[in-house]
């Protein structure tokens, strides 16, 4: 049995002693390689605090372990809700004049604020990557420290609106990061924090959303508690729906007085069900796919080789059952995804492979239709298409008549 982080919960600081969800030693999801071997594995255990119910990594890997070794790794975050979000922000602070973005996903929001007349700036990363490595999210989140941001405030001044989108879930010290961001705010300024909401994938018992790069898995209640523990008052807590996970946005202003204590909530029944279901799900899924893979294990393809697909394969122990790994991103072509035994090929190679009988989709629901159109010749010869995402009707995790 694994227990919580040695330093206690990342939100409330209380010890965690309840059973973890142990995924074992898994390859780092961004370590694509030209050769078929895994050089680096990390132990990935997920725990939940019995006091505040925050779901979190037991021991996050050091940031330098997570920095990609290929220069083409990019992450996309949702933008469709940003017009509505700007309207909410300016209704809370109609006289705002200045805005600062503190991460790599701020451009679309800052552009909209500029269009509404604000002066918008972006915080520079301020560090260089090691030779041949790309200093991306893990390097960035590690710079959200009080001393560094105080130096930035001394140079840039303070701002009416400060935004931090899709960074906080990456930091193993979210309270300290939020406290550090205060120095960038005007006395009555607004801090915007945006994170992915974890409630959908926890409820659906979808395990491909777990990721060594996410130290914390927030839901509405734990995001609110984090803000209050960090010395802020919550002005708005907004939810923008997505097919697989929603975007959670909290708009904060510095609070007067000390932070309130965190009242014990007891064990999270949502996490307990998620944890307790894993072993049976893993066994059932592997048994199902072994039968579908055929005696030579050459009948299953996986389309869309991002970190969800890689976690799906490695957490469930399916690498030996995937005959073809498919992605039309030219940067990935010829690379072995971490843990898989076959290099990435384009969709034409999949269309030409007469062995395939099942194609697993690891693509966002809004583009699945386009992928199906591209792969129509497969459907015409009887290839079955199923999604890896447990919440979707065509999921391989579900039994279909």
Report on this model:
This protein is of the alpha/beta class and about 400 residues long. Among the domains are: about 80-255, 3-Layer(aba) Sandwich (Rossmann fold), CATH 3.40.50.150; about 295-385, NAD(P)-binding Rossmann-like Domain (Rossmann fold), CATH 3.40.50. It has 13 helices and 15 strands. Strands 5-4-6-7-10-9 form a six-stranded mixed β-sheet, sandwiched between helices. α10 (about 305-315) links the parallel β11 (about 300-305) and β12 (about 325). α5 packs parallel to α6. It is globular.
Explain briefly what this protein structure is.
The protein is of the alpha/beta class. The protein is built from 13 helices and 15 strands.
């Amino acid at each position: 049995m694994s227990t919580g982080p040695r330093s206690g919960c990342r939100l409330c600081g209380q010890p965690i002693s309840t059973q973890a969800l142990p995924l074992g030693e898994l390859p780092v999801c961004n370590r694509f390689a030209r050769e078929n071997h895994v050089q680096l594995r990390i132990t990935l255990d997920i725990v939940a605090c019995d006091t505040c119910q925050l779901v979190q990594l037991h021991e996050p890997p050091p940031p330098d372990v997570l920095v990609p070794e290929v220069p083409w790794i990019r992450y996309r975050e949702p933008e469709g809700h940003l017009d509505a979000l700007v309207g909410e922000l300016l209704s809370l602070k109609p006289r705002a004049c200045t805005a600062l973005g503190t991460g790599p996903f701020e451009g679309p929001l800052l552009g909209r604020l500029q269009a509404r007349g604000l002066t918008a700036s972006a915080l520079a990363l301020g560090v260089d990557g090691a030779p041949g490595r790309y200093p991306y999210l893990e390097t960035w989140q590690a710079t959200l420290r009080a001393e560094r941001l105080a130096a930035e405030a001394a140079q840039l001044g303070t701002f009416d609106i400060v935004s931090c989108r899709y960074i906080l879930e990456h930091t193993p010290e979210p309270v300290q990061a939020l406290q550090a961001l205060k120095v960038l705010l005007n006395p009555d300024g607004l801090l915007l924090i945006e994170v992915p909401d974890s409630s959908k994938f926890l409820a659906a018992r979808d395990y491909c959303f777990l990721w060594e790069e996410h130290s914390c898995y927030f839901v509405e209640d734990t995001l609110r508690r984090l803000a209050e523990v960090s010395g802020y008052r919550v002005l708005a807590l907004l939810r923008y729906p997505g097919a697989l996970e929603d975007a959670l946005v909290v708009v904060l202003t510095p609070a007067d007085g000390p932070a309130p204590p965190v009242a014990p909530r007891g064990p999270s029944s949502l996490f307990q069900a998620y944890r307790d279901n894993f072993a049976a799900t893993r066994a059932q899924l592997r048994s199902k796919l072994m039968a579908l893979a055929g005696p030579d294990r050459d009948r299953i393809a996986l389309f869309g080789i991002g970190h969800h697909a890689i976690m799906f394969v490695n957490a469930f122990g399916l690498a030996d059952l995937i005959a073809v790994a498919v992605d039309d991103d030219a940067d990935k072509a010829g690379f072995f995804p971490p843990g898989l035994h076959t290099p990435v090929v384009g969709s034409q190679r999949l269309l030409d492979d007469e062995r395939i009988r099942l194609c697993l989709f690891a693509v966002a629901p809004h583009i699945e239709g386009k992928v199906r159109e591209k792969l129509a010749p497969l459907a015409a010869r009887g290839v079955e298409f199923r999604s890896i995402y447990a919440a979707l009707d065509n999921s391989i995790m579900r039994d279909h008549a």
